[in-house]
Structure formats: C-alpha cells, structure tokens
Amino acid sequence: MNPYESQALLDQYLLFHYGSADEILPYSGGPVTALEFPRRSVADNIDPSVPRARALDLGCAVGRSSFELSAFCSEVVGIDLSEQFIKAAEHLRKEGELTYHRLEEGKISTELVARRPEKSRPERIRFEAGNALDLSCRLGKFDVLHAANLLCRLPEPEQFLSSLPGLVAKDGLLILTTPCTWLGEFTTPENWPIEPTAQWLKEKLSAKFNLLNFRDMPFLIREHARKYQWSMAQASVWKRK
Questions:
Q1: Cβ neighbour number for residue 133 with a 10 Å cutoff
Q2: DSSP annotation of 149
Q3: Rounded average pLDDT over 27-44
Q4: Are 127 and 63 in contact (CB under 8 A)?
Q5: Please, what is the average pLDDT of the chain?
Q6: Letter string b/e over residues 144-164, b meaning 16 or more CB atoms within 10 A of that residue's CB
Q7: Deepest in the core among 18, 47, 128, 158, taking most CB within 10 A?
Q8: How far apart are CA 47 and CA 52, in angstroms?
Q9: How would residue 1 be classed by pLDDT, with cut points 50, 70 and 90?
Q10: C-alpha angle with apex 186: 7 to 13, nearest 5 degrees?
Q11: Percent residues over pLDDT 90 in the chain
Q12: pLDDT tens readout for residues 102-146
C-alpha cells in the first residue's frame, strides 16, 4: 500500500501545506523560517511577476504549490501518485475549503480548515493522479516544471532525470528540491547516487540545462503537538537550453 494513502498522512500534509504559523508551531523560539515550504518552493525560486504559459507540478501532494503557480501561469497541471492527495487538492480547487484534523497526541485531535490561497486561479489548474516515471506523452512541454521533495521518493530517480528534457520547453525553468533522504523503502540502494546529490544532478542535467542557482531551503513537518521533522532541502533551479 502506498503510505501516502493513509488518513494520518493526508491530515499531516494538509497542515504542512495550508496550516498557519500558529497552527503548526505555537511555541516561541521555534524554527519559523522553515514554515510555508510549499509556498516558498515556488516563490523563492521563480519570479512570480513574470507571466508563464504552462506549469507542471510533479509530486504536488495536496496542491499548495500548484495553487501558487496558478497565480502567474495560465495553465497548471498538478500530478501526484496518491489518489487521496489528489482528491483533497481537487476538493480545494472546487470548493475552496477542506476540513481535516491535526493530531495533538494519542487519540486527541483538533479540527482545522484548509483554505485555497486567495491569489490562486483555480480555473487554471488540473489535478490528476499519476506516476512521475510513467507520464503521458500527451502532456506536452512546459515553461515551468516544479518537483518539490520528489526525487528521493522515486524508485528510479535517474530515469526521472532523463525524462525532464522532454518535458521542459526551450528556455523553460526546472525547479527541483530534495532533502537527499535516500531510503530503501522508496529507492533501492543500487539506484542511489554514488556521489553527493548536487554533483550527481549537475552530471545528469548539464547537457540539456543550465544551472541558475543552488540554495538551502528548510522545511518543517509537524507530526504531533510535541514532535516535528525539521529538514534542509537542497533546491536547484535550471534553465532549459
């Protein structure tokens, strides 16, 4: 079973994508710079003042980054392997709100409401369940391809990198983020990079893309009221040759 089909992870990701600072981190002195990663993964890596035609959001989860892209892209396709995540994203696209539960501890939870970002253009978005390693050729090419924290969750990441030139239009932007958490449950060890991920990406992408930027991007996922995952994603932005 895909672990991302569980109700617990759906609730966790709705909080990660749409929760306010107080809902996620009500403690003083916490790592506030790690909040709003799904928004920052777009806003910090691409100029939203420049209109773009088509955007592809691979591994879109429950859709926050797709909504952010829709503010300046005339068409956005959000794809995720989890049908449950896609159903939640589509509900938000249509209805604007979705009720979920934040785990406090044990069997105790608090009801919260995820809300579609105000500046988003839901009519520009299409969400669909799909496999990033088996995309339809009918998708065509995109001016922006955004794949946040997807790479190290794929069984064959090198195959994914090989497919990217065929998905990004000339002069289009590719935005990749990854915490480089290579785990056997997602990627067999023989498919892990044998060198640092940043160097591996340069070797695999430089023939078709120009590297524009590498940066560190912290993110915070709340598991329950007193347990968090703090991670530092490696973000890179590339321009198609």
A1: 13
A2: S
A3: 96
A4: yes
A5: 96
A6: bbbbbbbbbbbeebeebbeeb
A7: 18
A8: 10
A9: low
A10: 30
A11: 95
A12: 999 999 999 999 999 999 999 999 999 999 999 988 899 999 999
pTM over 0.85: yes
CATH code of the domain occupying 3-240: 3.40.50.150
Residue of 208, 77, 187 whose CA lies nearest to 136: 77
Closest CA to 99 of 222, 190, 15, 158: 15
User: Closest Cα to residue 238, out of 138, 160, 154, 169?
Assistant: 169
Q: Report residue 152's pLDDT band, with 50, 70 and 90 as the boundaries.
A: very high
Which of helix, strand or coil describes residue 117? coil
Reported as a pLDDT band with limits 50, 70 and 90, residue 17 is very high
Per-residue b/e over 36-67, b at no fewer than 16 CB within 10 Å?
bbbbbbbeebbeeeeebebbbbbbbbbbbbbb
In eight-state DSSP terms, residue 23 is H
Q: Considering Cα of 155, then 212, then 168, then 42, what sign does the dihedral take? A: positive
- Integer-rounded Cα radius of gyration of the chain: 17
Contacts of 22 (CB under 8 A, 6+ apart): none
β-pairing, 142-148 with 108-115? unpaired
Give the pLDDT of residue 5: 83
Q: Which of 146, 202, 208 is nearest to 173 (CA)?
A: 146
Q: Which long-range contacts (CB under 8 A, 24 or more apart) does 82-86 make?
A: 82/2, 82/4, 82/5, 82/129, 83/5, 83/129, 84/4, 84/5, 84/7, 84/10, 85/4, 85/10, 85/13, 85/60, 85/61, 86/60, 86/127, 86/128, 86/129
